[in-house]
Amino acid sequence: MRADLIICGLGPAGRAVAHRGLAAGRKVTVIDPRPERVWTPTYAAWADELPGWIDRGAVAATVDGPSAWGTREHRVERVYQVFDTAGLQASLTLEGATVVADRVVEVDARAGVVRTAGGQTWTGRVVDARGLTRSPRRAEQTAYGVILARDEVEPTFFMDWRADNGADPDQTPSFLYVVPLGGDTVLFEETCLAGRPALTPDVLRHRLEHRLSARGIPISGTEPVERVRFPVEGGKPGRGRFGAAGGLTHPATGYSVAAALAAADTVVAGDTVWTPQARAVAALRRAGLRALLDFPPRDVGVFFDAFFRLPAPLQRSYLSGHDDLRGTLAAMRALFAELPPDLRRGLVTAVLGVNR
Question: DSSP secondary-structure letter at 229?
């Protein structure tokens, strides 16, 4: 059987390419063991990352200038948007696609062949968006969150590294992430940005409860819970891979959905997402992850103070500039200048190992 586009995996990345392929008039086949699976994670993005075709109804909440705390508060001069997860999934319609409820067992992107456990063979241009499997060798991001009524809300925090979560200063650090979910609810989530191994959900739950208690925010134990665990490294560009599998996860933040949405039309057109500049940016970001993993835990807040003191355009280049090599280098140079000498040495060591 043949299609113009064969999409393996129906998470946000795969569904975005399928949706845009259909919009471009392509014959699309999507293959996933559970194509009707409902997405449950909370997805968010900076508004300036999103392509113009996104259905505005898929956005649950918009925050103009969220806060970030290292050892003091900073205002992030960008607009932050939290998706209505169900609305985002519904907006990426698959009407007109051939939907195959099966498991992919073999992908040969170069030959354009996909085989499934059910014995079907499909030919066409392959987009493998099945995500990444967990591995002890891969740094992961983990999080534990509770959804509370809006009247308990603090200001929106993109990152809050304050030391009121009960953790010892020399333990793996975690931060508080607080965003509105639309309506009258707010997500409070304790997050391990990256760890190898990452903090467990039980540790994060304990820290979140300690932090909320310290801030006078009551919880009953019956609130809806969100648990997060995924690799922040291991994706490799090429051979038809896309989304997290194709290296679009930002290793220093864990974000990938906005990058996948923004790149979907490029993939449909058959062009490459991975220009030489984009590959160089990805290598520098991996160096940033290595530096972050190597920092003494008690210095992480100092590192983020330095980052959030950077001018907004440099912050944007590092956080969102997929192929902005000049901006990424400028951001890293400026960050280096802001850091104290001991942290500079760690950053230099990581950057010099950029090709490891």
Answer: E
